Amino acid sequence: MAKRRRGLAGRILRGLLLAGLAWAVLTLVTVVAFRWIDPPFTSFMLTDRAGALLSREKGYDFSHDWVDWDQISKYAAVAVIAAEDQKFPHHRGFDFKQIDKALADRERGRRVRGASTISQQVAKNIFLWRGQSWFRKGLEAGITVLIETFWSKQRILEVYLNIAEFGRGTYGVQAASRRFSTRTRRS
Questions:
Q1: Same structural domain for residues 133 and 153?
Q2: For the whole model, what pTM was predicted?
Q3: DSSP letter string over 47-71?
Q4: What is the pLDDT, as a whole number, of residue 113?
């Protein structure tokens, strides 16, 4: 009986390790491919659309239009860096000063604030899920290292500007520009 349990536990552990290895290889291959291929969707887009569909949310309108780097306003790129991650051109995916400040705030019982860089946000939005946990942060850190290793800073920013959510169901600067310029004209 004990041998059977060990055998079952060993198979389960082996299966988990193989699943983890398969996920890591798939993630690596996808990150490398996305160096040249535009991500057709992100995990955030999928969960957002599925959630709206399942809840039968009235008025939900999904919008995502990919635009290449040379079609994106350089002012949008500068604005995103200024608002989200001023050290983006100089770090390798992590702003350790901001991480230290966020951890210190958490220890003091203050509101948890974000310290994610643009690179970390790209990793999270494409591959992971919303929410906060150390497990997700660990996965995010690993994917961020891969992105920073295989992509240029320009590519990271191009992907970010095309996948960031700029309002409910509005992903990317092109979709935001169309949605909000239409609203402005109607007013």
A1: yes
A2: 0.86
A3: HHHHHHHHHT-TT---EE----GGG
A4: 63
